[in-house]
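Give me the fold.
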Amino acid sequence: MASRMQQPMFILSEGSQRTRGQAAQDSNIRAGKAVANAVRTTLGPRGMDKMLVDSSGTVVITNDGATILEEMDIEHPAAQMIVEVAQTQEEEVGDGTTTAAVLTGELLAQAEDLLDADLHPTVVVEGYHEGARLAQEAIDEMVLDLDLGDDETLQQVAESSMTGKGTGDVTADALAKLVVEAVRHVADGERIDRDNIRVLTRTGASSSATSFVEGVVIDKERANGNMPKRVEDATVAVLDMKLEVRKGESKAEYNITSVDQLNAAIEAEDRELRGYAKTLKEAGVDVVFCTKKIDDRVAGYLADAGILAFKNVKSTDAKALARATGAKRLGSLGDVDESEFGHVDTVYVEKFGDDELTFVEGGDAAKSVTLFLRGGTEHVVDELERAMNDAVDVVIAALDKGGVVPGAGCTEIAISDYIRAEAAGIEGRKQLAVEAFADAVDSLPRTLAENCGMDPIDAIVDLRALFDKEGRAGIISTGRTGEVADPVEYGIIDPAAVKREAIESATEAATMIVRIDDVIAAE
């Protein structure tokens, strides 16, 4: 029987590109390494900043890994996975984004060598997962027996997070005290609600003017210029309604045929608007925060009644105000009860440049606090805001997610040593991948040493020697270079959760990329 001629079959749309086998693996790994190398020099206390300029000319100056990767215009799909690693790290624990990105890149670099040595990708993946499991065991063993009820310990955690980041003319130690004060204030013995700690920035003063506000600061002006600027011992109402003339749901037309009818309509409307102010005044309300519109006439009547009011308050601000004052958010003024209002020590409006900010301090509930950050320029306050947010997150992570471990590369050295010791008992080629995982982790203290101006090879040798002798060793930035010493003695400690999340997310991303051997891209 004659064989049939097989015609080529096209299953992809015209213009689609397909990369297979080693070419696909090489492309993905190179892209991942390139992204990791882009943030490598920002790691550690001597990390450098990056200037990012978008197509509209907006400039961002930072050494925050998540911000850098988010601002970069990255198109390669494998590289975007590393961006997602940094984003996940930021969302889960708030810090360690650069660590996670660099570790992902190193895992890919080690995988490239293993693939060149004819290890199958699934063997590499299995070895990496085993290495990640051993790394978690090593982290558990490095958790320090420190009292997290001690403010000084938490201040060290916050300060370690901020070291090397732009904080203007204020020291990381001073900022760390504010961070711990904020966290302690909202802690109620259970899991800490991060939303209760707000950060607000304003230019026009040095960073040393940064302060802690026991309450809420909102970027809102008074609804009427004749309203009081300061109210003591205030009863507060938070409203989710419009203070204006009510409108029917259906369209209706009214035929007015005389001046008397027009005046009557105007008087009825005026009575309704005055009624809002009268109801609030009789209920004993001193301050009103309204998430919706306040008619200018109502604002005038409120001012006549001595009530301080704010309109179009953001829902997030209203939520924080309710937590800080103990008020309930009201959808109407019918049958209002005193228990639905909140109480604060002081509400006052203060001028900053051309804008007014409103401070709500000393509430009965006081579940919300604000870190009010100052700086001379927008770039300074933006970077200060990122540093403070990271510091708040790591302090909460230390309290809520498993304690603290030594920083400065000490935990990474412990991880790599532990993995190598356990790798000896692993049979087959998977052992090579496990050892490669340890080599990738070693890149973190090596990068810290490079960024401190130290010889990375000598630094790693000295780290291992001191770690074997004392059980703790890290890269300490001193003067114009660095030295190898016990990081705990220098107060350099990190949340264990930051290390755990970095290992987990970096491993997941690297193994996913290694397993790809076919890339099909539409036109």
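The first strand starts at residue 17 and ends at 20.
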